[in-house]
Amino acid sequence: MLGAIMRLLRGGGPDPREEARLEASRITERAEQEAKSRLIEAQEEVLGARRDTEADLRKSRDDQQRHEDRLIKREESLDRKNSELDVQDQRLRSRQRDLDTRADEIEHLVEQERERLEAVAQLTTDQARDKLMGLIDDEIRDDVNRRVRETESTIKEEAMERARKFVAIAVQRVATEVSTESTVSVVPIPSDEMKGRIIGREGRNIRALELATGCDVIIDDTPDAVTMSAFDPVRRQIGKVALARLVADGRIHPTRIEEQVEKATREIDQNIRDAGEQAALDARCGGLPSDLLNIFGRLLYRTSYGQNQLRHAVETSHLAGMLAEEMGVDPDIARRGALLHDIGKAVDHEVEGTHALIGGDMARRFKLSDTIANCIEAHHDEVEMTSTEAVIVQVCDSISGGRPGARRESADRYIERLRALEEIANSFEGVQRSFAIQAGREVRVIVDPERIDDLESMRLARDISRRIEEGLTYPGQIRVTVLREMRATEVAR
Predict the structure, then answer these.
(1) Contact by Cβ (8 Å): 273, 246
(2) What does the pLDDT look like over 404-432, one tens digit per residue?
(3) Three-state DSSP class for 304?
(4) What is the domain extent for residue 298?
(5) What are the Cα distances from residue 79, in Å, to 67, 69, 82, 90?
(6) With 267 labelled, which of 125, 155, 341, 434 sits at a CA distance of 20 to 30 A?
(7) Does any domain span residue 158?
(8) How many CB atoms within 10 Å of residue 484?
(9) Over the stretch 71-114, which tens digit does the pLDDT of each residue have?
(10) Taking the complete model, does pTM exceed 0.70, yes or no?
């Protein structure tokens, strides 16, 4: 615009101020028109927003009105239900009163009937209840005994089949000898004249021998024999060897006695070490502490019912290793636990306690595993078993000690055990007679058929076997057989 004005001023013509005024007027008109159009658009937008707001308000009022109508209807419905519940409550209270009245009447009738039954049966209610409970107890006991017998039969069949397989495989692979040893240490002498030389002047030789060996030297009327007596089997063996050498040499005096006892001690100690190491080698239990094997070797001179304890330990170890392999557990732990299970017997005359617990403490003291220690201390059920290997050790100990020819006992102890078996069986009610047979391996019990039935016979056999386990010490196992016989006799005339 300024360019146009300047051109007009330079070239002359119309008045530039008039042109400018006209142009300004036109601009103003256009601005007014745009403002009016925008004002109209804004008014239309305001009217549209007002209409939308009014529509939303009408909808909200309609929704609120409908909600209020629903609430009113629900309140009316609840009022009707409350009225109905009041009516039902009154009816139920009326029925409850009727039921209470009828219950009183029924209780009165029951009491009358009970009195009538007691008069007819001549039993009070408590007596009838006790009689009924007794019948139920008898029925339940019979049923339980029957179920126990069936369950025991099934379990025994399955267990015995597997046990026979495992034990047969293990026992067939072990070759052992029959026990023929004696626990008495007797030294033969050439003549009774040697007894006087052993005693010595004023008894100095025998006192020196007893002092050096720690044994009692028994010289009695037994011809051509002198007995060595001591609780320690090692000392008894030392005394036996020393005395045998003195008798063979013929020179018997205190100085010579001390020399021979010292030599015998060194020899027996070497034998003990060699025996312990050889036993560990035979049982495939290498790596055991040498001090432990020195103690274990003492079992070479220890016997139980005539069975040598060192050979018993090796035999038990062989059995345990084979059973462990068959059952899929650690055979090394089973062999070591079985080999050392009786090691407490080597020192039980010096340490208080049972040989099983002493052996477990020794195993821990020599840094053996807790599993091996548990196998040792639990093989007589003095401690709870914590592994399958411990069970295997206990079983193999029984197999080794209970096999035919493994152990024997003196005649006095044998007769005493037979008498004790019969006394235990005769102590039960209903037993008429009992007999210990099969060298004490079986007890036959004859019962009164009028007092003991078939199911009671099963329970009696189990009770007798438990009493024997708790009260007696014996090698192997003892079978208990209960015989019940009913005889009917008539005379034809």
Answers:
(1) no
(2) 555 555 566 778 888 889 999 999 988 99
(3) strand
(4) 185-402
(5) 18, 15, 5, 17
(6) 341
(7) no
(8) 17
(9) 998 888 888 888 888 888 888 988 888 888 888 888 888 888 87
(10) no
